[in-house]
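Lab notes, practical 5.
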Amino acid sequence: LTALLAARPLATGVAHIALGGVEDMHSDYERGEVLRAALAAGGIEQTDTLFAAVGRMTSSYEQRRVLTDALAKSALGPDGRRGFLMAAATIESDYDCGQVLTAYVKANGVEPGVRQPFLAALRTIDSDYERRRVLTELAARGGVTADVQQSVFDLVGTMRSDHDRAEVLLAFLNARAVESGSRQAFVSAAERIKSAHDQNRVLAALVRAEGR
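Output from the prediction step:
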């Protein structure tokens, strides 16, 4: 299949045939090689088949490799972005899922239309550290609407690590990204921090930010 995808010019429908062929493969490595070859060939018109194939893989590492290539080598429309995030939610490894979501945020940000699948994927990550890495990247990128921020701050409030909670909230403050419409959700997340040191860091930074 990879040799077929490497042929030039690429015949119409070859990528679709190759994607169908991976269903019978038992090796995630071989599946991943075919999927990445199809992406490199540029012959994938319907990404839903690609992301469905990724969702059936059990190797988090191979899933990450394919999804990272999908970001780099294909322009994802609204449906494609939702499909990408749904595939990311099937990754079992916190590290690999975090890497994929961080790469997604760098490339696309998080617009309101993908808020639900993005947060669903983020909730599959148990590690507060990996969640923090994704969300601090989101804060740094900017352009996060108030409704997306509110959902993010609600999620931050459920994190167990006070340090990671504080770092995410500080990242939004440092980026001057906290919208007035999400301020109450921000404060609620800060109030859930049990560590006096971390809570004071966040609230003092909020006062400074609002005084600018």
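Observations recorded by the TA: The longest helix spans residues 196-211. Residues 127-212 form one domain.
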